[in-house]
Description:
Double Stranded RNA Binding Domain; elongated; binds 3-methyl-2-oxobutanoic acid
Amino acid sequence: MTTAGNAKDRVLIFDTTLRDGEQCPGATMTFEEKLEVADVLDAMGVDIIEAGFPIASDGDFEAVSEIARRIKRATVAGLARAISIDIARAGEAVRHAVKPRIHTFVSTSPIHLAHQMRKTEDEVIEIITKTVTQARNLVEDVEWSAMDATRTPIDYLCRAVETAIKAGATTINLPDTVGYATPDEYRDMFRQIRERVPNADKAIFSVHCHNDLGLAVANSLAGIEGGARQVECTINGIGERAGNAALEEVVMALRVRGDVLPYDTGIDATMLTRASKAVATACSFPVQYNKAIVGRNAFAHESGIHQDGMLKHQQTYEIMTPASVGVTKTSLVMGKHSGRAAFRSKLKDMGYDLGDNQLEDAFTRFKALADRKKHVYDEDIEALVDENIASAHDRVKLVSLTVIAGTRGPQRATMKLDVDGRIVTEEAEGNGPVDAVFNAIKAVVPHEAVLELYQVHAVTEGTDAQAEVSVRLASEGGAAVTGRGADPDTLVSSAKAYLSALNKLIARGVRVHPQAAE
Ligand code: KIV
Ligand code: ZN
């Protein structure tokens, strides 16, 4: 395959989430989960699905057989060591596939030959001929892998590759099994092999990179530049040790940087997020927040400068659209780094239309909250804006509150209130901290209203969640009002809720004495 005119070379995507991915500690999937993942991979346009290692267990064999039966578009591959019974079992497992493949491998590096296999180079060459021939007698499509290729002397690697192609291998995979190569080395290895192996043009070359040095995707792209036209990768980059090259990263690198990497895949990138979620759920393996393409922060912006840029033009801080990978929308995460512009836009999205003064007030309160709270959710903003709107005409406002609470009572509240613009300080004890807070308010604003309800609930999750308190006060005449207050501190929310109810009573003309402290 060569580049003709402007046409891009096609790179095959070989997904090994269900084999190498499942080999990673803690990522085991059930039979049903494997079928679900295979369906998503097929729908997304993966060219080859490596469904498992049939000799490994009866469960693996069953899963590979069932995937082979149900997948109608993609090739289904089963892995086999260079052992006759492995190859027979893999052949048996994939035989019902529309497009079956046997993927067999053997180590070629000196360290593996000497310590793991205890075989000579010549013995391994014989094994390659024997096992690839056996596989080729079972299926047309045979992939052969030189395990630990990147630590194999190039002359011997050329000999092994030539042998495998002669025996009938149609795909040659040269894995960086231990994630040791650098991009230049890996690119060069493919160039040399393709130049020096006489029958190299009879096979498609494949990259398979592990991420031990964090270079799996960079190496895969370099291997493509070296002439490989198949990439072995996994969703979310799961796999042995530090994992494999992440499918979503390879696909999007080729798409976004088509200017310097003129290669195409058949992947429907808008399904990447869905596939990532399906795999994360199936193997209970969470995706790191800052994971490229599919992490929850991949399209989230918090810093004020970035949010400001994003509101003016999306491409200021995004190199691909969230929609292109199946994410509905960029999210402007509200936090202490957010600026006014982002806050205004957030409020607009939430349906609020505040005047300049109200907005400024709400923004000040939002900043104060963001300084105290790690995550500021929409619900938090809603609570603070609602409270802000409601309290705009209040005659009695909370300025500050200190409470001494704990096992050694009495509990004591020291409170500063703004009463019609005048600051009043009061101290009171109570049967518990909430009672002390309410007594302090009563001391400043004497009234006969009765507390009918006191309720607390968390606005969002986590121990730093805002507590929303509701307080219902009934006046002597029977009128009842409910006030709400929200704050990460439950006692502050309680004070705000009580004052909110009291202010409503005052507004209704119920007899209370806001100036009593005078
Ligand atoms: O990493 C590796 O070398 C492998 C082979 C089995 C292809 O996973
Ligand atoms: Zn591997």
